[in-house]
Specification:
single chain, alpha/beta, Rossmann fold, 2 domains, 8 helices, globular, transferase, Methyltransferase domain-containing protein, SAM-dependent_MTases_sf
Length: about 260
């Protein structure tokens, strides 16, 4: 009888401990939401007691700056790089109950992270056919967070194949671009073929309306659809939208 009561006591104590842990996590989340001012993503991250989220801390301000206008709307969001499944839950919380979150990863184990509002697709970013199938299946896409394999081929392939499927007004954010400087990922300072060097050429294309050497570079689809590029430490953000040829006007009375 004594052993029975000891075992029962241990079970009760175990349940109480788990309940206390859940209560603490909930209280910690609420505290963070109240006290981490101005950035709900950082608040979520600081309060997180669930699946692992691994981020550079300066990313949160950039995310919120470019994504806040999509919150509470019926948007389609794709994140490349699921890993432990914590960030797709963060995006679900951030964008709200109308959002459709798609996580893409090469690791088949990530399939278990699917849940309400979150779909997981398994595939390889180096496979352009796979990327085209994503674009056809989920486009038009409002937000992309490219946090996948970080090699040059994966980053460039993903941008080129997914960009045409971006919605007008959509945002494509590619992060961890410091790998463009890391030889282990195919990078190097001013090394041809890195995403950073690729993006520098896109800066030219944004300005191609003004080219006087059409054989060197001319207006193309990127010129017509990249409304803006925002460059940060390890991140570039692309704004999608129809761009028309620039024009000038004059107002007022000449003074000379």
């Amino acid at each position: 009888m004594t052993d029975q009561w000891v075992r029962r006591g241990r079970r009760v104590a175990g349940r109480a401990k788990r309940k206390a842990a859940v209560t603490y996590a909930t209280q910690r989340a609420e505290w963070a939401r109240r006290h981490v001012k101005g950035n709900p993503l950082e608040a979520y991250f600081r309060a997180n007691q669930g699946r692992l989220i691994y981020k550079w801390l300066h990313f949160f301000e950039i995310y919120d700056r470019h994504f806040s206008s999509f919150r509470g709307k019926p948007v389609t969001v794709i994140e490349f790089g699921v890993q432990h499944g914590g960030s797709v839950q963060m995006w679900k919380d951030y964008f709200g109950p109308q959002a459709r979150i798609i996580g893409v990863d090469i690791d088949q184990r990530c399939a278990k992270f699917a849940e309400d509002q979150i779909e997981i697709v398994i595939g390889d970013q180096e496979d352009r056919e796979f990327l085209r199938s994503l674009a056809a299946r989920f486009g038009p896409i409002d937000v992309v967070v490219e946090d996948g394999g970080h090699t040059m081929a994966q980053q460039i392939n993903t941008f080129e194949e997914i960009w045409p499927a971006m919605a007008d007004g959509g945002v494509f954010l590619i992060e961890d671009l410091h790998t463009s400087y890391w030889p282990s990922y195919g990078g190097g300072y001013r090394r041809e073929g890195t995403f950073i060097e690729y993006a520098k050429k896109l800066v030219d294309q944004v300005n191609a309306w003004h080219s006087h050497d059409k054989d060197a570079f001319d207006v193309d689809e990127y010129t017509r659809t990249i409304r803006g590029m925002h460059v940060y430490d390890s991140i570039i953000v692309f704004d999608k939208g129809r761009v028309t040829p620039p024009r000038t006007e004059q107002t007022g009375t000449p003074s000379l």
